[in-house]
Amino acid sequence: MDFANPVPEPTPITVMHDRQRMRYALVGALALVAGIWIVWIGAWLFGWPLDDLGIEPRRLHGLIGVLTAPLAHASFEHLMSNTLPVGLLATLTLYCYPRAARIALPMIWLLSGAAVWLFARDSVHVGASGIAHGLMLFLFVMGLLRRDRLAVVTSLVVFFLYGGMLLSVLPGEVHISFEYHLAGALSGLLAAFLLRMRDPPPPRKHYSWEDETDTEPEPDDELELPRPQHVPVLWQQQPREDENRVIVFHPRPRDPTPPSMH
Length: 262
Description:
The chain is mainly alpha-helical. The protein has helices spanning about 10-45, 65-70, 75-95, 100-120, 130-145, 150-160, 180-195. The protein has a single domain (about 10-195), classed as Rhomboid-like (Rhomboid-like fold, Up-down Bundle), CATH 1.20.1540.10.
């Protein structure tokens, strides 16, 4: 089943598709959380040893834990601490990236378990915290890579709620598998880089002014000013016939009687 991306201007059809997409994300996340709870309740009721479902590094019988370790939890407190992060992060992943989630979730599940089996310390590693770390880093890095509105908002919300998970990838308490946290985070980072273009970006909102062309408007004859060569020069005089005539000034005649001296 495939769903269209959310659009900036919802219509009745897109709202219906968006509800189907949200229902798909909720059902998928609830199925994952329900599986974790069913395994824990079954082990509690029938006395199953959960260590048999965990990952035992570099031991052949411990390979089964690559598939089953995220479903097993050491205690009820451990189960409760992982339920909300896994449910919320899985819902956001399935809603925002329905196509990429189909590959990202199994990829994080298997790669993190395989890395723990290969490199972790000798112990029994159980819990879904590796899945939670992988989904958190997957959603955060997808926002940095894609940069569309939905991806960026989801990335900021996830980092605000669960950014503190990044500190748990470092060695801390002895009974906490930081190896599983680190392997899950690296698997989510790898999945984000590989699957960043799996889902098409949502369409950009279209504005009315973008339809306007850059052509110049037609001039109005009544308001358009005439060109400079068409404007008459009012101070330019017309040439006259005697414009080049030379006026001759004759000298005055001299008086023959010299002036007397007194």
